[in-house]
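Example record

The entry below shows one chain as it appears in the dataset: sequence first, then structure tokens.
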Amino acid sequence: MNISWLGEAGVRIQVKDTVILIDPPSAETELKPTRQSASIVALTQTDGRDVRSVGGEPFVINTPGEYERQGIFVYGLRLATDPQRVHFRIEAEDMSLGHLGNLDSKLDNGELAQLEGVDILFIPVGGGPVLDADAAAALISQIEPRIVIPIQYKVSGGTAKYSDAAAFLKELGAKNIEPQMKYKIIKRDLPAEETQVVVLARE
């Protein structure tokens, strides 16, 4: 599995020949449209997202439910604390990934149960309209993923009122992490004990 970050809440996940795009950013975010092809596009919301720039004939998921395409299971989660959006859990290559784009509130016990056992968690950390560093760190301690990938924080070229990722990395005790353009992971390489932080450079 290869993972890269499109900026904002946008994530690209490639599983063999299948490409999943979550929340591809639109031009209104002042980030370049993705111009990539995908088999699946998952949207937490429509504002600031751009499906039209995605090539191919992707299967678009923007409502709660259970979906399956090419051996990949996508679960659209409706959270009572954030009813205007859909959050996602994806099962592929014997790994589970959670995506909490634009989340701005804590989760209750029932909502946390939907994310139980997630191996990789994409979580907003920039504050303002989304979780800040403290709230993100608290949520991570509840979910206990094996890998955390921060999204939605301040980067050059973006217009959202976020802070950078420094406070979040400090909160998690993550030091001297070099951003990488692409993260390759297989199940046997998942960390066994401590949660690992992976920082991705924007494509």
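Notes for this example: The first helix runs from residue 109 to 114. The radius of gyration is 15 Å.
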